[in-house]
């Protein structure tokens, strides 16, 4: 039973249980895509059914991670298959468990309001947004926001963080950002703002058929 109900793997060279960050990021990407598509379906079509299924999948998956074993989580299994040819990047299991407990609370709240009570409100909207932010930062940047919260709440320092961010060290030259690069980002933002301002009316209008092809289509 100890092999079934377990959190983290014992890997030679690591003094605490660890998890593979690469498969965690892959699983976060899968969940983000699922949640994003179903939320867009709600916004554009007013159809809550896909989102309800997504919430159930999200809740069951993350409950398995926290209360049974991460290695039995369906999305983590799929993530492991996807990145199986990549060298593992090990991270401390303790801070991941804390982050996923937050996920359980969010998913359970969504399940109660959206599926059990069958209601929507600013509460469900805010929770969806928080989930998307957490999943996006994990999958796109390898930043675990819940793990950051673990370090703030608990006095003990987290070990084996993604990208070795827990270790105090100087940035390498390729990681440094110059003032010129920052100015380019600001100029890019200003360009986008100016473009939107100048072409605001054109953006809101439906494009016309340049070659008049729609006129020649036969009615069905």
What brief labels describe this structure?
220 residues, mainly alpha, two-stranded antiparallel ribbon
Strand tally: 2
The helicity comes to 55-70%
Structural class: mainly alpha
Broad shape: globular
Strand order of the largest sheet: 1-2
What value does the average pLDDT take? 87
- The succession of helices and strands, N to C, reads EHHHEHHHHH
Over the alpha carbons, how many angstroms does the gyration radius reach? Answer: 22 Å
Q: Give the amount of beta strand, in percent.
A: under 5%
Number of helices: 8
Low-confidence stretches: none
Distance between the termini: 64 Å
Number of domains: 2
The largest pleated sheet is described as:
2 strands, antiparallel
Short description:
This protein is an all-alpha fold. The chain has helices at residues 21-45, 49-67, 74-82, 93-116, 122-141, 145-153, 179-198, 200-204, and strands spanning 18-20, 90-92.
How would you characterize the overall build of this protein?
The protein folds into two domains: 18-172, no CATH class; 174-204. The termini are far apart. The protein has helices at residues 21-45, 49-67, 74-82, 93-116, 122-141, 145-153, 179-198, 200-204; strands at residues 18-20, 90-92. It has 220 residues and is mainly α. The longest helix is centred in the first third of the chain and has 25 residues, at 21-45. It is built from eight helices and two strands; from the N terminus they run βαααβααααα.
């Amino acid at each position: 039973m100890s092999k079934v109900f377990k959190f983290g793997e014992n890997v030679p060279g690591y003094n605490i249980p660890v998890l593979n960050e690469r498969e965690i990021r892959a699983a976060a990407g899968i969940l983000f895509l699922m949640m994003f598509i179903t939320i867009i379906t709600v916004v554009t079509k007013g159809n809550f059914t896909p989102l309800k299924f997504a919430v159930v999948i999200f809740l069951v998956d993350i409950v398995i991670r926290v209360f049974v074993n991460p290695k039995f989580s369906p999305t983590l299994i799929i993530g492991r298959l996807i990145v199986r040819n990549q060298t593992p990047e090990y991270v401390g299991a303790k801070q991941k468990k804390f982050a996923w407990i937050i996920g359980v609370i969010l998913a359970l709240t969504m399940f109660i309001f959206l599926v059990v009570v069958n209601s929507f409100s600013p509460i469900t909207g805010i929770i969806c947004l928080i989930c998307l932010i957490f999943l996006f930062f994990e999958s796109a940047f390898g930043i675990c926001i819940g793990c950051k919260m673990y370090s703030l709440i608990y006095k003990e320092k987290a070990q084996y963080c993604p990208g070795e961010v827990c270790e105090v060290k100087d940035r390498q030259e390729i990681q440094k950002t110059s003032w010129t690069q920052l100015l380019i980002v600001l100029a890019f933002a200003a360009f986008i703002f100016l473009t939107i301002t100048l072409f605001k009316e054109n953006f809101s209008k439906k494009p016309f058929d340049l070659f008049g092809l729609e006129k020649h289509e036969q009615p069905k």
